Amino acid sequence: MPPMATVSHALRFAQRTARMRASTIREMLKVTQQPNVISFGGGLPAPELFPTDAIADATRAVMNEYGPLALQYSVTEGTPEMRRWVAQRLGHRFDMDLSPSNVMILNGSQQGLDLIAKIFIDPGDQIVLESPSYLGAIQAFDAYQARYLTVETDDEGMIPESLEHVLEHADPFPKFVYLGPTFQNPTGRTLSRERRERIVAICEKFELPILEDDPYGELRFEGDDLPSLLSLARKATVIYLGTGSKIVAPGMRVAWVVTKSADVLEKIALAKQAADLQANSLTQYVFHRYATSDQFDEHVRTIVRTYRERRDVMLDALAEHMPASTRFNRPSGGMFLWVSLPGIDTEELLPVCAEQRVFFVPGVFFYPNDDVHDGMRLNFSNAGNEKIRLGIARLAEAVRGFRK
Amino acid sequence: MPPMATVSHALRFAQRTARMRASTIREMLKVTQQPNVISFGGGLPAPELFPTDAIADATRAVMNEYGPLALQYSVTEGTPEMRRWVAQRLGHRFDMDLSPSNVMILNGSQQGLDLIAKIFIDPGDQIVLESPSYLGAIQAFDAYQARYLTVETDDEGMIPESLEHVLEHADPFPKFVYLGPTFQNPTGRTLSRERRERIVAICEKFELPILEDDPYGELRFEGDDLPSLLSLARKATVIYLGTGSKIVAPGMRVAWVVTKSADVLEKIALAKQAADLQANSLTQYVFHRYATSDQFDEHVRTIVRTYRERRDVMLDALAEHMPASTRFNRPSGGMFLWVSLPGIDTEELLPVCAEQRVFFVPGVFFYPNDDVHDGMRLNFSNAGNEKIRLGIARLAEAVRGFRK
Question: Mutation test of the interface with chain A: which of B60, B76, B253, choosing the one with the most A Cβ atoms within 10 A?
């Protein structure tokens, strides 16, 4: 009650996906409920860096300055203050002209994935994804019964020739390509500058809209900023997703979608109005207050410095403890790195890791179509240096135990 | 770009609905952009009653007590504190056993309408609605291409015989009945106690799930609380929606869905995870802190006292100014009342009201299937007493001008 027959096709599809992973989810729960477990599994920011005092101060300041306006209903597109801040910050970062009318505020960037799926996808439609790709996006698209065309990747991200090949043979032609060009979730990889230009050119040639997901772009540890696909496009429709979750706090659910296509933005607004009316008025005002304060830039620098150190600690520990056959990358920003264990099914490794009280996400979940079983995603932002060292030592112990 | 052909069927359907109303929306914008306009159109709470200082204090207290936890990702179902508070408050109000596991926290109750539509509705499925019914619900269901079966109503709400008749002849059988039994939006009507029991019995006989929308139930001006359909059901699946928007503040986006069906709640959680991961952590904690403070009960009493007075002022002004043929009801709570102007198309009245700088929502929008043109919804919560008197005088002036 209600029986399955009363449930819509969309959710049945999502449930099928979910059931496939039930045994692994049980393992995950088993692990995370143990005391002293060290998790590299989630995508959580470092909580000790959250600006708790500053957020309380900002709330008081917002109440003094805006009063009831910050607690009342507001427009679906977001507060004028937040839209202007996003347009200015991204315009400056990517050296491009953006106006507040190119920006809409979302209840977290997951909502962007959902609403964009809602306006583009009919059951059976195809979407182009990197292989591997972000699990949350796959879940959002699954709910609309999308099918996937996957493009090969290497250490420089999506391979343009593979994208071109996929598009030449696609039938039906896909609705859009989804990719995370900068410090991608799950791999931490970054699309090179040359490839950015080539991928935008290919999408312009094929008239394929681009969904660019950029939650981690401000967390660069070294090297120069690269242009966003949004800023490189001349004719292509690029829909860009950004978020405050990684530079302020995810619990405030302030994120944004940016596009030069007024048509797409209007459709997203229409879909959002039916879905939840508007983003949170209060946390939009509080976020804006904090993000325009003197403390903000230094706060972001502290996050970058801390995560860079944690990445280095994790890389050193991997080199020290893991078997020689282990491969891993060195992301120049973000929150994740990718480990390959040739010959090991990392899903089968989980129960052994449960015994060692360490946790990761098996790579197979990030492949929408392919069975690639030797990868794992490791998060380096959440745990402190000591926990990272201990956790990687446990992981290496689990791998040795598993090989026997 | 993208051309219409790339947009999903669901959104095209929603757009069709939206376009039908484009001319009226233009009139609405014309009116609300004028200076000194008095609007009875929106559904806004009285902003001067928002507890701005208390919310700033509560945020500081939450940061002191919970710290980073209130800014981190949290679970899709909502914080344990909020789920417990909702279970206790509703359990007490309706004299029933509820546990936190019956509760999920939403990003506004519009999200409940969207997610419930998502899990129940396939294109072409039928939903049973009151006639008239809440516009936001119709918009949410439209996005999933629902069709509607409408049930007749009178001053005591939905007529049980009409519901029974509709269900006996329904083909295909509907997925659920949606209704607002208490101070309904748009009419302000309340379903009588006897009818509540009969409607639950009919739904149990036909095994039809009930979606009970109760945003205004705490705003009772006189008379005794009536049992919720949730508390009356023995076998029926009842999905109950409540919100903090009318008792604290809508900008905080804290609302809840409550059901004894673990199956339904699990499906809503699955759909919510793909849609936006979770409700706002920060405003859940802040809401909880305020709602458990000494000030809260008195705050709700102040809202009730203020809205009761405004309703009375509006009723007196209607009696004084409007033509003798005007009919209107006297809601015993909530934020809206319903006016009928026999022989007048209230949509055509809007341009005349624009000249008079007064605004309302034409009743026709609330009828999903029927062409009933002589109604209007008036909100009495947002404007103060003087503005209500002046606005109703203007409205009466517009009606007299229109009749000529």
Answer: B253
User: For residue A207, what is the DSSP state?
Assistant: T
Q: Tell me whether residues A252 and B71 touch, CB distance under 8 A.
A: yes
Residue of B nearest to A253 (CA): B280
The architecture (CATH level 2) of A52-291 comes to: 3-Layer(aba) Sandwich (3.40)
Query: CB–CB of B276 and A111 under 8 A?
Result: yes
| B71 to A114: CB separation less than 8 angstroms, yes or no | no
What ipTM does the predicted assembly reach? 0.94
What is the β-pairing status of strands B336-340 and B375-379?
Answer: antiparallel
How near does any CA of chain A get to the CA of B319, in Å?
Answer: 31
Using one digit for the tens of pLDDT, what is the confidence trace for A342-378?
A: 999 999 998 899 889 999 999 999 998 888 999 999 9
Check B55 against A282: CB less than 8 A apart: yes
pLDDT (tens digit per residue) in B14-44 = 554 554 455 666 666 666 666 789 999 989 9
pTM for the model: 0.94
Nearest residue of B to residue A122, measured between CA atoms? B8
One-letter amino acid at B157 equals G
In chain A, list all ranges with CATH 3.40.640.10.
52-291
Report which of A133, A180, A187, A155 is spatially closest to residue A336, judged by C-alpha positions: A187
What's A366's DSSP letter? G
> Which CATH superfamily, name and number, covers A26-43+297-403?
Aspartate Aminotransferase, domain 1 (3.90.1150.10)
Query: Is CATH 3.90.1150.10 correct for B22-43+297-403?
Result: yes
For β-strands B38-39 and B358-359, DSSP reports them as parallel
Tell if the CB–CB gap between A71 and B110 is shorter than 8 Å. no
For residues B8, B11, B17, B18, the Cα torsion angle rounded to the nearest 10 degrees is -130
Rounded to the nearest 5°, which phi and psi values hold at A156? Answer: -100, 15
Query: Where exactly does CATH 3.90.1150.10 map onto chain A?
Result: 26-43+297-403
